[in-house]
Specification:
single chain; about 190 residues; about 80% helix; elongated
């Protein structure tokens, strides 16, 4: 969660920290934080983590760095950066939501965070569509309500994650204690 929060803070500090740190490092750390959430949720749900999962993560991080640099330094294009990052977020937020909602015995915190991740998927799709349909401003602060809504969504996402992860850990611990206490009756 710290990685995602750091990425979001770097993007929020645009104008106060160097542009490339804010854009490239901020977006890359945010994506990497979401990937770590995905791995954590897979561990929580006892799903196997294969080398292919790590290869997918590495490929997405390299794509993010390349396209963020390309659309920041070589061919400046805010809309292309937004579309690229949201396309990279889509599979991970969808997989997190799906894993939490359709796990064998989902807890209430798992369902809530799963629904929030499906909301993130929908938010990314809407953001991509609005960027492609409406004209984009070259300034972060001039992009209006789209950036504001996305920023509020990410703050809500981080707060929800901060509340949900300890609840998921407590649920898993409680489940383990119950399993252990009933094992002697079998």
């Amino acid at each position: 969660m710290f990685v995602l929060f750091t990425g979001q803070m770097l993007m929020t500090l645009r104008g106060y920290v160097p542009f490339y740190i804010s854009i490239i490092a901020g977006n890359t750390l945010s994506l990497f934080g979401l990937m770590l959430f995905w791995l954590g949720i897979r561990l929580y749900s006892n799903a196997q983590i294969h080398w292919k999962n790590y290869a997918l993560m590495l490929a997405c991080i390299l794509c993010a760095i390349y396209f963020l640099y390309w659309f920041s330094a070589v061919k400046f294009n805010v809309a292309a950066r937004i579309v690229t990052m949201n396309l990279l977020v889509l599979p991970f937020s969808t997989m997190i939501g799906y894993t939490l909602i359709y796990s064998s015995a989902p807890s209430r915190p798992a369902l809530v965070f799963g629904i929030v991740n499906i909301g993130t998927t929908l938010s990314s799709i809407i953001r991509i569509l609005t960027v492609l349909i409406s004209p984009q401003h070259q300034s972060f602060f001039m992009s209006g309500w789209q950036t504001g809504i996305h920023t509020l969504w990410m703050i809500g996402y981080i707060i929800t994650a901060a509340i949900t992860f300890p609840l998921l850990a407590l649920h898993k611990q409680k489940k383990a204690v119950l399993t252990k206490s009933y094992s002697h009756t079998l």
